[in-house]
Amino acid sequence: MISDVTIVFEPEGKKVVTSRGKTVFQAAKEAGVGLRSECGGGGLCGKCRVIVKNSDAVSKLTEAERKHLSQSEIDSGYRLACQTKIIREVIVMIPPETKLEYHKIQVLGLERKVELNPSVMKCHLLLPKPTLSDFRPDLERLLNSLSKQTQKAVNLEIDYEILKKLPNILRDANWDATVTIWNDYRIVAVEPGDTSSELFGLAVDIGTSKIVGHLVDLTSGKTVGIESIENPQVIHGEDTITRITFAMADNANLEILQKHAIDCVNRVLHEACRKARVNPGRVYEVIVVGNTAMHHFFLRIQPKYVALSPYTPAVKSSINIASKELNIKVNRGGIVTILPIIAGFVGADAIADVLATGIHESEKLSLLIDIGTNTEVFIGNKDNMLCCSCASGPAFEGAHIKHGMKAVSGAIERIRISPDLEVAYKTIDDAKPTGLCGSAVIDVIAEMLKNGIINPNGKFNSNIKTKRLRKNNNEMEFILAWNNETTTDREITFTQKDINETLLAKAAIYTGCKILMKRKNVEEKDIGRVFIAGAFGNCINRENAKVIGLIPDVPTEKIEFVGNTAVMGAKMTLISMGMREKAELIANKVRYLELGNDSDFNQEFSKALFLPHEVKQTS
Amino acid sequence: MISDVTIVFEPEGKKVVTSRGKTVFQAAKEAGVGLRSECGGGGLCGKCRVIVKNSDAVSKLTEAERKHLSQSEIDSGYRLACQTKIIREVIVMIPPETKLEYHKIQVLGLERKVELNPSVMKCHLLLPKPTLSDFRPDLERLLNSLSKQTQKAVNLEIDYEILKKLPNILRDANWDATVTIWNDYRIVAVEPGDTSSELFGLAVDIGTSKIVGHLVDLTSGKTVGIESIENPQVIHGEDTITRITFAMADNANLEILQKHAIDCVNRVLHEACRKARVNPGRVYEVIVVGNTAMHHFFLRIQPKYVALSPYTPAVKSSINIASKELNIKVNRGGIVTILPIIAGFVGADAIADVLATGIHESEKLSLLIDIGTNTEVFIGNKDNMLCCSCASGPAFEGAHIKHGMKAVSGAIERIRISPDLEVAYKTIDDAKPTGLCGSAVIDVIAEMLKNGIINPNGKFNSNIKTKRLRKNNNEMEFILAWNNETTTDREITFTQKDINETLLAKAAIYTGCKILMKRKNVEEKDIGRVFIAGAFGNCINRENAKVIGLIPDVPTEKIEFVGNTAVMGAKMTLISMGMREKAELIANKVRYLELGNDSDFNQEFSKALFLPHEVKQTS
After folding, report:
1. pLDDT value at position A103?
2. CATH classification of A4-93, choosing from 1.25.60.10, 3.40.50.720, 3.10.20.30, 3.30.420.40?
3. Residue in A164, A346, A598 to test binding to B, most B beta-carbons within 10 Å
4. Is A32 left (phi over 0), alpha (psi -120 to 50) or beta?
5. Could you give the ipTM of this predicted complex?
6. pLDDT band at residue A391 under the 50/70/90 scheme
7. Distances, alpha carbon A487 to alpha carbons A401, B43, B353, in Å
8. Does this model's pTM top 0.95?
9. Is B313 in contact with A138 (Cβ distance < 8 A)?
């Protein structure tokens, strides 16, 4: 018989009862304690580091742990949660670098003014009461009044649930009621009295790591509440591929991912409504954007074929689903609209980026880069557009980097290295540093290159004399912060492996830009504007981004950070039906280029692995 | 504490455990034992007669029972089930006249040929497999193939449940699949392989007392199975008003009535499919007709306002609902369509009658009478139509008549009285008689009138000398069958009250016809055809129907019995989209006349109480 055992997670002191033999990782997952993991608990990423207080209460060290942990760490009690089985009552410390923290999320972005023309409208009606000479049925009575008031013929469907209650609603309201109509053809609510001033919608961006929602007053088009939370799917992997693998293993897993996504939207809705004092029952429409994996998770569509060549999604066009079918807790008759996607790795969020920046309507040739684990790149103007997806990996989000972390308090976000090879840095909230986030990753590479610490091929220059450069576990690393400066009492370093990881990431993005430019037959000088979207964008040092060759070499003033354009684009489609049509047009008009399929990809990628990148050879 | 007690229903020997103090009627209802009742257990109708074997096991006789039972009946152990409370273990005999029997139901009717053009169509597709140069999403791939094959642009919605499964369905089917499309705009099924030959629909008439369904092969338009069952709602009252009262008492009751209706449709579906060896998953559409009360019960819409002046239904136009929302067990993506109604007492069944008889397209002036508890009457031709509803009551269905019964085995269906006042009758199945059904009710009045047993005012002629005419419990009655001829060992009689009841019924129908003729400004001679629809129609003696003045005096050859035109009309709309549009047109074109509101109603009704009816006075 499997017996129960208690595990206590410190520093919160959260006590959890689990079954003997489970791993610390499993126990944390069950208890909703967020541990970092990029491999979902497979012992591959080495991110789920914990400190076990009583080592005899757990299983022995595994090979995987010996690989990911240094001897001194092992001596201090460090273990990988996914490798450590619980034998008896145990206390486990979660160090700051392992904890999934709720950090400030980029909730705003570039927004363009759009005409107020939402898909839901309300109409307050004073209906004539039935009499023996006017015995029109309730629905027809209502439709006739509506037609009279709006001065146009109406031929509307009605939600069955509302029809069922219609006779009672109208009589209880004494024939004074407000009708809500969606998309000019469906009655989604009939409410007693005049509620026409209460008309709200929610625009949500379901990101791989965060969910951001804007609660919008659809009578004015104004945002009345913004709410953001971490995506709890992260428990099942930090990147989409790990989560897709999790979903593929079992249909129940896919259900778990959907439930996370739905719960998140409900939490964002609930909080935004609570703070803005809006009744969630007066929210009639939700617009959802997200990358293709999030899109499939949200809809509980098998995402397997998105991950496997030829990377085929289930559906491209936008989808409207009754909120009750998804259990989204807006008005019972409300509608959830998922915007269209472009391809397996270019989702509705990217379409929202295009809408928000307006590059599809501009004369100027624009380059739009939404940097994330997957980076989407668009090039084009009002005449035509090309896009691709770059498997950039999460290096610029602080993941896959030894001391990398998200942009939370204590993360180093800016780095300068002086000619005497001394390091200056700035942390978020000016707190004691715990690690470094994406913007600092760009800085450190650029600064090391400028100071000759590394060569254009990304290798450490062993001729450099500084005690900050050292060999550790057979690997060269550069010390950014000494152990006495940090919260972890360990040095924060940047290793040769980190450099390699970053070069792969930046090469992926640069190659994407480059190939799109080639296919479009344009050069750097032709590019009018470069938009950089994404959560971490605003903190990037634009010069350094060019120094390392993350983006094409255009004049700095042409580079614009636009923030979370995904949620802003979603909001635009919430406010305006016209924008929704444009989203559909963009989805159909943009030509998607599968980079893996491009004959120049390998050559361009190899070149891009140099810093900033191999100069074109004149033939 | 309430203790349990056992009750045994004979002759089936069904044993039921119930609570002490409940009535026999309640116990029977709980156990699903069908007892006749017109008042739903209120002690008013006297129909729930049972024989209690051990009288000391039940409560004492009530006033209501003394009123409805004769002394000799009381001596034989007769009780009213609704008045009899169970004290201890008891055996209760249900006599044949009380049992709700499953009798042969009129399942066919006049049918007109219609063009085969159903709302569901199938298309078998061989899809190109995705490749790196053709990575169209699954749905768009399917739509493109569909467009190519059907040679027209397609812009279809897809059921969310199907979309969820689409990637797996298509790959499991190796890209060889059949798509089912409803109404040219919604994908309701995607099935592996070629299933295009399996396309079925169900047309159902939900009648107050019976449910009839036709299973139709939509590739040919042919009926492949017919199934009919009694409406189990009858437990909650034989007529619609009793059931509406039941529904008004509690929302849970309305739910019970809906569940009965849904279960019935599922039973009809299941049986018809089983016998025809059709997979219910290949049934994609259900067309439902029924009177307005049945319509509201089926949709679980509060029917209260249909019963109260000004008799307003909730909705007039046809409604399409996902089968899964109603729990109708056809294909998961199937659609249930409820045809439009005209008014509170003229339902979708009446529209189906019009469709089936085609009176709305004929040059000839037609009169259509669908006789039931509620009788719907239409007059008109292709130019315009008038209709009304007559509260005829259930006399012609054998109810509210002392020895009346449904048209089941043992019911007298034809009666002749010879000049020597002797009675000849014919029973259904030539069985020993138990009572008389509706057609015999018409005969007995007509024959008594012709032989001077009753006067034109419907009173017994006390000068007539025959031992068949007697006074019983202070009421005159005419003996149709002697006690030694019957199954009940009691005489079958026709009482003064029965005559009065019948006169009210026939007067209601005749007045309906008469007022419609007046409002249309036509006379008997202008009427080209008279259609009599309804379950009992076929057995009526047309001459006698005219003798008693049930219908206007037109040449007999103009009178046509058309049977169950409701289900035939429903079938026509199942086969042809065009018919569905016509149903909508009929609903909007027919003018409904509220008889209770007509200034001539009282005068006409008084006249119609005479046999055949008071002759017009020449002024």
Report:
1. 45
2. 3.10.20.30
3. A164
4. left
5. 0.80
6. confident
7. 18, 86, 84
8. no
9. yes
